[in-house]
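Milestone M4 deliverable, item 7.
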Amino acid sequence: MSHAPHPSQSSDLISELLTGMRLHGVQYRRIQTGPTFGLEFAQKPGHAYFHYLAVGNAILRGADGSQHLLSAGDVVLLPRGDGHALLSGEDHPVQCLETIYAAPLGDAVSGIDTCPSTHAVPSAVLFHGCMVFDLGGMQGLSKVMPAVMLADGNATPFTGLLPMVDAMKREVCSGRIGYAGILARLADAVAAMIVRDWVERGCDGASGLVMALRDPRLSLSLLALHRDPGHDWTVEALAAESNSSRSVFADRFQAVIGTAPLRYVTELRMQLASQWLSQQSLSIEVVAERLGYASQAAFSRAYKRVMGHSPGATRRGGRRLQGWREEVPKLVSNRAALAKCR
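Output delivered:
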Protein backbone atom coordinates (compact mmCIF):
# COMPACT_ATOMS: atom_id res chain seq x y z
CA MET A 1 0.00 0.00 0.00
CA SER A 2 1.38 3.44 -0.94
CA HIS A 3 1.77 6.13 1.69
CA ALA A 4 1.23 9.81 1.04
CA PRO A 5 4.50 11.78 1.16
CA HIS A 6 4.96 13.90 4.23
CA PRO A 7 4.95 17.63 3.38
CA SER A 8 8.10 18.21 5.44
CA GLN A 9 10.26 16.04 3.17
CA SER A 10 10.75 18.82 0.62
CA SER A 11 11.84 21.17 3.41
CA ASP A 12 14.23 18.48 4.66
CA LEU A 13 15.89 18.35 1.25
CA ILE A 14 16.25 22.13 1.16
CA SER A 15 17.81 21.92 4.62
CA GLU A 16 20.28 19.35 3.29
CA LEU A 17 21.19 21.78 0.52
CA LEU A 18 21.81 24.66 2.92
CA THR A 19 23.78 22.44 5.31
CA GLY A 20 26.15 21.41 2.52
CA MET A 21 26.70 24.92 1.16
CA ARG A 22 30.16 26.35 1.75
CA LEU A 23 32.15 29.39 0.66
CA HIS A 24 35.83 28.58 0.18
CA GLY A 25 38.86 30.74 -0.44
CA VAL A 26 37.18 33.90 0.75
CA GLN A 27 39.10 37.11 0.12
CA TYR A 28 37.52 40.11 1.83
CA ARG A 29 38.04 43.78 1.18
CA ARG A 30 36.86 46.71 3.22
CA ILE A 31 36.26 49.52 0.73
CA GLN A 32 35.56 53.14 1.57
CA THR A 33 35.03 55.82 -1.05
CA GLY A 34 34.37 59.50 -1.59
CA PRO A 35 31.14 60.90 -3.07
CA THR A 36 31.93 59.61 -6.59
CA PHE A 37 33.25 56.15 -7.42
CA GLY A 38 33.16 53.38 -10.00
CA LEU A 39 34.48 49.90 -9.18
CA GLU A 40 34.59 47.08 -11.72
CA PHE A 41 34.57 43.41 -10.70
CA ALA A 42 35.84 40.89 -13.27
CA GLN A 43 33.89 37.79 -14.25
CA LYS A 44 35.01 34.75 -12.22
CA PRO A 45 33.27 31.50 -13.25
CA GLY A 46 32.92 29.01 -10.43
CA HIS A 47 33.03 31.80 -7.87
CA ALA A 48 30.51 34.03 -6.15
CA TYR A 49 30.65 37.71 -5.25
CA PHE A 50 29.32 38.97 -1.94
CA HIS A 51 28.73 42.64 -1.14
CA TYR A 52 27.45 44.32 1.99
CA LEU A 53 26.86 48.06 1.79
CA ALA A 54 27.35 49.37 5.32
CA VAL A 55 27.22 53.11 4.60
CA GLY A 56 25.87 55.18 1.69
CA ASN A 57 24.22 54.35 -1.63
CA ALA A 58 25.38 52.71 -4.86
CA ILE A 59 24.24 51.38 -8.22
CA LEU A 60 25.06 47.78 -9.10
CA ARG A 61 25.28 47.39 -12.88
CA GLY A 62 25.18 43.81 -14.13
CA ALA A 63 26.98 42.34 -17.11
CA ASP A 64 23.72 42.56 -19.07
CA GLY A 65 23.34 46.27 -18.32
CA SER A 66 20.67 45.80 -15.67
CA GLN A 67 20.84 48.16 -12.71
CA HIS A 68 20.02 47.67 -9.03
CA LEU A 69 19.85 50.53 -6.54
CA LEU A 70 21.58 49.73 -3.24
CA SER A 71 21.27 51.50 0.09
CA ALA A 72 22.89 51.01 3.50
CA GLY A 73 22.05 47.58 4.90
CA ASP A 74 21.66 45.84 1.53
CA VAL A 75 23.42 42.54 0.86
CA VAL A 76 24.09 41.21 -2.63
CA LEU A 77 25.09 37.70 -3.68
CA LEU A 78 26.16 37.02 -7.28
CA PRO A 79 26.28 33.19 -7.23
CA ARG A 80 27.67 32.72 -10.75
CA GLY A 81 30.54 35.18 -10.41
CA ASP A 82 29.30 37.41 -13.24
CA GLY A 83 31.21 40.59 -14.01
CA HIS A 84 29.60 43.77 -12.69
CA ALA A 85 30.27 47.26 -11.40
CA LEU A 86 29.39 49.35 -8.37
CA LEU A 87 28.96 53.05 -9.10
CA SER A 88 27.93 56.29 -7.45
CA GLY A 89 26.13 57.37 -10.64
CA GLU A 90 25.05 55.75 -13.92
CA ASP A 91 27.67 57.45 -16.10
CA HIS A 92 30.63 57.40 -13.73
CA PRO A 93 33.75 55.75 -15.22
CA VAL A 94 34.89 52.50 -13.62
CA GLN A 95 38.26 51.17 -12.49
CA CYS A 96 39.05 47.50 -12.10
CA LEU A 97 39.15 46.76 -8.38
CA GLU A 98 42.32 44.72 -8.67
CA THR A 99 44.31 47.68 -9.98
CA ILE A 100 43.67 49.59 -6.75
CA TYR A 101 46.13 49.15 -3.91
CA ALA A 102 44.71 47.09 -1.05
CA ALA A 103 46.42 47.41 2.32
CA PRO A 104 46.56 44.12 4.26
CA LEU A 105 44.35 44.18 7.36
CA GLY A 106 44.93 40.56 8.33
CA ASP A 107 44.67 37.04 6.97
CA ALA A 108 42.51 37.14 3.79
CA VAL A 109 41.27 40.67 4.57
CA SER A 110 42.52 43.90 3.02
CA GLY A 111 41.39 47.50 2.85
CA ILE A 112 40.88 49.94 -0.02
CA ASP A 113 40.47 53.65 0.62
CA THR A 114 39.65 55.92 -2.32
CA CYS A 115 38.13 58.66 -0.20
CA PRO A 116 39.80 62.02 -0.95
CA SER A 117 41.74 63.57 1.92
CA THR A 118 39.39 66.56 1.74
CA HIS A 119 36.53 64.35 3.01
CA ALA A 120 36.85 63.49 6.68
CA VAL A 121 34.05 60.91 6.48
CA PRO A 122 33.69 58.38 3.60
CA SER A 123 30.51 58.59 1.53
CA ALA A 124 30.23 54.82 1.11
CA VAL A 125 31.64 51.85 3.04
CA LEU A 126 31.42 48.41 1.45
CA PHE A 127 32.44 44.95 2.60
CA HIS A 128 33.21 42.75 -0.37
CA GLY A 129 34.07 39.09 -0.71
CA CYS A 130 34.97 36.81 -3.60
CA MET A 131 34.87 33.08 -2.98
CA VAL A 132 34.40 29.62 -4.46
CA PHE A 133 30.66 28.94 -4.13
CA ASP A 134 30.30 25.27 -3.25
CA LEU A 135 26.86 23.64 -3.10
CA GLY A 136 28.28 20.15 -2.75
CA GLY A 137 25.99 17.60 -4.37
CA MET A 138 23.58 20.37 -5.34
CA GLN A 139 26.16 22.22 -7.46
CA GLY A 140 23.88 22.19 -10.50
CA LEU A 141 21.50 24.50 -8.64
CA SER A 142 23.87 27.46 -9.10
CA LYS A 143 23.26 27.39 -12.86
CA VAL A 144 19.61 28.34 -12.44
CA MET A 145 20.05 30.90 -9.68
CA PRO A 146 19.55 34.55 -10.59
CA ALA A 147 22.69 36.41 -11.63
CA VAL A 148 22.03 38.92 -8.83
CA MET A 149 20.39 37.99 -5.51
CA LEU A 150 19.60 41.14 -3.51
CA ALA A 151 18.52 41.17 0.13
CA ASP A 152 17.44 44.19 2.12
CA GLY A 153 18.72 43.52 5.62
CA ASN A 154 15.87 45.60 7.04
CA ALA A 155 13.08 43.79 5.14
CA THR A 156 10.71 41.38 6.89
CA PRO A 157 12.00 38.11 5.32
CA PHE A 158 15.48 39.00 6.48
CA THR A 159 14.89 39.99 10.09
CA GLY A 160 17.87 37.90 11.20
CA LEU A 161 20.19 39.19 8.51
CA LEU A 162 21.09 42.64 9.78
CA PRO A 163 22.64 41.46 13.08
CA MET A 164 24.92 39.12 11.13
CA VAL A 165 26.10 41.69 8.63
CA ASP A 166 26.58 44.17 11.46
CA ALA A 167 28.71 41.52 13.16
CA MET A 168 30.75 41.26 9.94
CA LYS A 169 31.29 45.00 10.04
CA ARG A 170 32.51 44.86 13.65
CA GLU A 171 34.82 41.91 12.97
CA VAL A 172 36.53 43.38 9.93
CA CYS A 173 37.05 46.70 11.74
CA SER A 174 38.25 45.27 15.03
CA GLY A 175 41.03 42.99 13.80
CA ARG A 176 40.59 40.75 16.84
CA ILE A 177 42.17 37.29 17.01
CA GLY A 178 40.46 34.83 14.64
CA TYR A 179 38.26 37.43 12.97
CA ALA A 180 38.98 36.16 9.43
CA GLY A 181 37.57 32.74 10.28
CA ILE A 182 34.54 34.31 11.93
CA LEU A 183 33.95 36.41 8.82
CA ALA A 184 33.96 33.29 6.65
CA ARG A 185 31.37 31.58 8.86
CA LEU A 186 29.17 34.67 8.90
CA ALA A 187 29.33 34.83 5.11
CA ASP A 188 28.23 31.17 4.97
CA ALA A 189 25.18 31.99 7.09
CA VAL A 190 24.24 35.16 5.19
CA ALA A 191 24.54 33.42 1.80
CA ALA A 192 22.45 30.50 3.11
CA MET A 193 19.69 32.89 4.20
CA ILE A 194 19.60 34.50 0.76
CA VAL A 195 19.47 31.13 -1.02
CA ARG A 196 16.81 29.85 1.40
CA ASP A 197 14.60 32.85 0.68
CA TRP A 198 14.96 32.22 -3.06
CA VAL A 199 13.98 28.55 -2.70
CA GLU A 200 11.05 29.35 -0.39
CA ARG A 201 9.73 31.86 -2.93
CA GLY A 202 9.55 29.11 -5.54
CA CYS A 203 12.98 29.62 -7.12
CA ASP A 204 11.53 32.29 -9.40
CA GLY A 205 9.80 29.59 -11.45
CA ALA A 206 13.06 27.84 -12.40
CA SER A 207 12.76 24.29 -13.67
CA GLY A 208 14.78 21.09 -13.30
CA LEU A 209 16.37 20.30 -9.96
CA VAL A 210 14.66 23.19 -8.19
CA MET A 211 11.27 21.79 -9.21
CA ALA A 212 12.31 18.43 -7.81
CA LEU A 213 13.20 20.10 -4.51
CA ARG A 214 9.53 21.00 -4.12
CA ASP A 215 8.06 17.80 -5.62
CA PRO A 216 6.52 15.83 -2.72
CA ARG A 217 7.49 12.46 -4.24
CA LEU A 218 10.79 13.12 -6.01
CA SER A 219 12.10 14.94 -2.95
CA LEU A 220 11.73 11.69 -0.97
CA SER A 221 14.12 9.81 -3.25
CA LEU A 222 16.48 12.77 -3.62
CA LEU A 223 16.68 13.19 0.14
CA ALA A 224 17.54 9.50 0.60
CA LEU A 225 20.12 9.66 -2.19
CA HIS A 226 21.84 12.80 -0.91
CA ARG A 227 21.98 11.40 2.62
CA ASP A 228 23.55 8.12 1.48
CA PRO A 229 25.18 8.57 -1.96
CA GLY A 230 27.33 5.45 -1.49
CA HIS A 231 24.34 3.11 -1.25
CA ASP A 232 23.88 0.59 -4.08
CA TRP A 233 21.14 2.63 -5.72
CA THR A 234 18.98 1.20 -8.50
CA VAL A 235 16.00 2.79 -10.21
CA GLU A 236 13.76 0.38 -8.30
CA ALA A 237 15.29 1.39 -4.96
CA LEU A 238 14.88 5.10 -5.71
CA ALA A 239 11.30 4.55 -6.85
CA ALA A 240 10.55 2.74 -3.60
CA GLU A 241 11.74 5.78 -1.63
CA SER A 242 9.16 7.84 -3.55
CA ASN A 243 6.42 5.23 -3.09
CA SER A 244 6.14 4.98 -6.88
CA SER A 245 6.43 2.28 -9.49
CA ARG A 246 9.71 2.03 -11.38
CA SER A 247 8.28 3.28 -14.67
CA VAL A 248 6.28 6.15 -13.17
CA PHE A 249 9.27 7.29 -11.11
CA ALA A 250 11.74 7.09 -14.02
CA ASP A 251 9.44 9.05 -16.32
CA ARG A 252 8.75 11.71 -13.67
CA PHE A 253 12.45 12.03 -12.79
CA GLN A 254 13.44 12.46 -16.44
CA ALA A 255 10.66 14.98 -17.10
CA VAL A 256 11.41 17.17 -14.07
CA ILE A 257 15.20 16.97 -13.71
CA GLY A 258 16.05 16.36 -17.35
CA THR A 259 18.31 13.36 -16.85
CA ALA A 260 17.94 9.66 -16.09
CA PRO A 261 17.95 8.64 -12.40
CA LEU A 262 21.16 6.60 -12.47
CA ARG A 263 23.00 9.25 -14.45
CA TYR A 264 22.01 11.72 -11.76
CA VAL A 265 23.34 9.32 -9.12
CA THR A 266 26.70 9.09 -10.89
CA GLU A 267 26.99 12.84 -11.41
CA LEU A 268 26.12 13.51 -7.77
CA ARG A 269 28.81 11.07 -6.63
CA MET A 270 31.41 12.70 -8.85
CA GLN A 271 30.51 16.19 -7.59
CA LEU A 272 30.97 14.96 -4.03
CA ALA A 273 34.18 13.19 -4.97
CA SER A 274 35.57 16.37 -6.48
CA GLN A 275 34.76 18.25 -3.27
CA TRP A 276 36.33 15.62 -1.02
CA LEU A 277 39.46 15.29 -3.17
CA SER A 278 40.13 18.99 -3.69
CA GLN A 279 38.98 20.51 -0.41
CA GLN A 280 39.40 17.75 2.16
CA SER A 281 42.41 16.06 0.51
CA LEU A 282 40.91 12.60 1.05
CA SER A 283 42.70 9.76 -0.67
CA ILE A 284 41.22 8.31 -3.85
CA GLU A 285 40.82 4.98 -2.10
CA VAL A 286 38.78 6.49 0.75
CA VAL A 287 36.56 8.47 -1.65
CA ALA A 288 35.91 5.39 -3.79
CA GLU A 289 34.91 3.42 -0.70
CA ARG A 290 32.62 6.19 0.60
CA LEU A 291 30.79 6.30 -2.71
CA GLY A 292 30.22 2.56 -2.90
CA TYR A 293 32.71 1.59 -5.60
CA ALA A 294 34.13 -1.92 -5.39
CA SER A 295 37.56 -0.80 -6.54
CA GLN A 296 39.63 2.34 -6.94
CA ALA A 297 39.98 1.55 -10.65
CA ALA A 298 36.20 1.44 -11.19
CA PHE A 299 35.80 4.75 -9.39
CA SER A 300 38.62 6.37 -11.38
CA ARG A 301 37.06 5.30 -14.68
CA ALA A 302 33.66 6.71 -13.69
CA TYR A 303 35.23 9.93 -12.43
CA LYS A 304 37.19 10.54 -15.62
CA ARG A 305 34.14 9.78 -17.76
CA VAL A 306 32.03 12.39 -15.95
CA MET A 307 34.60 15.03 -14.99
CA GLY A 308 36.92 14.79 -18.00
CA HIS A 309 40.09 14.21 -15.98
CA SER A 310 41.44 11.80 -13.40
CA PRO A 311 40.69 12.05 -9.66
CA GLY A 312 44.43 12.38 -9.07
CA ALA A 313 44.48 15.59 -11.12
CA THR A 314 41.64 17.02 -9.02
CA ARG A 315 43.45 16.14 -5.79
CA ARG A 316 46.72 17.72 -6.97
CA GLY A 317 44.85 20.83 -8.08
CA GLY A 318 43.19 21.08 -4.67
CA ARG A 319 46.57 21.00 -2.94
CA ARG A 320 47.85 23.82 -5.12
CA LEU A 321 44.70 25.87 -4.45
CA GLN A 322 45.04 25.32 -0.71
CA GLY A 323 48.61 26.57 -0.84
CA TRP A 324 47.42 29.69 -2.69
CA ARG A 325 44.69 30.33 -0.11
CA GLU A 326 47.19 30.26 2.72
CA GLU A 327 49.44 32.90 1.20
CA VAL A 328 49.20 36.48 2.37
CA PRO A 329 47.31 38.41 -0.35
CA LYS A 330 49.72 40.26 -2.62
CA LEU A 331 49.22 43.27 -4.80
CA VAL A 332 48.85 42.11 -8.40
CA SER A 333 50.47 43.98 -11.27
CA ASN A 334 48.35 46.52 -13.14
CA ARG A 335 48.80 44.66 -16.41
CA ALA A 336 47.52 41.36 -15.03
CA ALA A 337 44.63 42.99 -13.23
CA LEU A 338 43.56 44.98 -16.26
CA ALA A 339 43.56 41.80 -18.34
CA LYS A 340 41.04 40.28 -15.89
CA CYS A 341 38.66 43.19 -16.38
CA ARG A 342 38.57 42.92 -20.16
